[in-house]
Design goal:
single chain, 333 residues, alpha+beta, five-stranded antiparallel β-sheet, 6 helices
């Protein structure tokens, strides 16, 4: 009974009457009142959409002052840190029942942002330079110090070239571009270089020695024309059906010396020799003295006569002896 009286006294001092203390609606416990008395909690990482940080962004259960602006939000794509001392001063100023746990307490504030794709920037620069003789097979390289361009979320991603200065001899340019709308309008100064590019077929994944390259293994990449060596394969069809002489890694330009037609006859392997004569096909067993691909002329040693002849590779493990007239024509050519 004593514990019950003490409990009723605490509720009365707190201004909260028990639900059974009376029948009037005003005597019933209001859940909203309990919610408002909950202790405020600090939000240690927040993302804001507007240009100001509000009290309710920093603290949950901030009460009626939750919409009060307490700081400017960082620029699009950036973040700011609010330290413990600053947070405590704000809490006291707005009568928030909160204290930092230590000097390391902080809030990281980010601005909700969108990034302008770099390809869109390059496209607009090439379009602006089209009147100055820059062709469609050219590409843009922005200066290494270029950073992404951010706008507050909800903006149009369109960018415009206001002014551009281009040096045809060096390919270098300086451009002034604008993006954003109204209060979020921003102006950007960019430098870079225009260069001629070529598309080069490369492998999607590593292909090992002896594997045959198929259409599904190949993709296209753009490269600076000045970096493409003369022996690099630039024709898609020159890769299909070929096999690497050694493993080729993905994404690397492929030189003609790196690939060959699949080997159908291995050196020192036994092969079947075919020789056509009118109305008859003669066969014999031989030993390959050279490796060869389809259509290659290799030396074969006849197992029975030990005579060394030249034959054309026509299939895996099979060669055909040329007629005398064919061999003579081949030698003359």
């Amino acid at each position: 009974m004593r514990k019950l009286l003490i409990h009723m006294t605490v509720l009365t001092l707190a201004g909260i009457a028990p639900a059974w203390a009376g029948n009037a609606p005003s005597d019933v416990l209001d859940p909203t009142a309990i919610f408002e008395t909950e202790k405020p909690m600090l939000n240690e990482h927040i993302v804001v959409e507007s240009n100001v940080v509000r009290l309710g962004d920093l603290f949950t259960n901030a009460g009626t002052r939750a919409e009060a602006a307490v700081a400017y939000s960082p620029a699009a794509g950036q973040r700011s840190v609010l330290d413990a001392r600053w947070l405590y001063r704000v809490a006291r100023a707005y009568k928030i029942n909160w204290k930092p746990l230590g000097a390391t307490t902080q809030v990281v504030v980010e601005r909700d942002s969108i990034s302008i794709p770099q390809d869109e920037i390059k496209t607009q620069i090439l379009f602006a330079l089209s009147d100055q003789g820059v062709s469609e097979d050219m590409d843009v390289e922005l200066a290494s110090r270029f950073q992404q361009v951010f706008l507050p979320a909800g903006n149009d991603l369109t960018v415009n070239v206001e002014d551009i200065n281009y040096q045809e001899r060096t390919g270098r340019f300086v451009a002034t571009m604008s993006a954003g709308q109204a209060a979020d309008f921003t102006r950007i100064r960019l430098t870079g270089r225009v260069f001629r590019s070529v598309e080069v077929p490369v492998l999607r994944a590593r292909v090992l020695r002896g594997d045959v390259i198929t259409k599904g293994d190949v993709q296209w990449i753009k490269m600076k024309a000045e970096r493409v060596q003369r022996d690099v394969i630039v024709d898609f069809e020159d890769l299909i059906g070929m096999t690497p002489k050694r493993g080729i890694r993905a994404g690397s330009p492929i030189r003609r010396a790196d690939v060959r037609r699949p080997v159908m006859v291995e050196k020192n392997s036994l092969v079947t020799i075919f020789h056509k004569v009118p109305n008859l096909v003669l066969t014999a067993q031989g030993k390959a003295l050279q490796s060869g691909s389809d259509g290659d002329i290799v030396q074969i040693k006849n197992q029975r006569s030990n005579q060394v002849i030249e034959a054309e590779v026509i299939a895996p493990g099979r060669v055909a002896v040329r007629s005398l007239s064919d061999q003579l024509a081949y030698t003359l050519n």
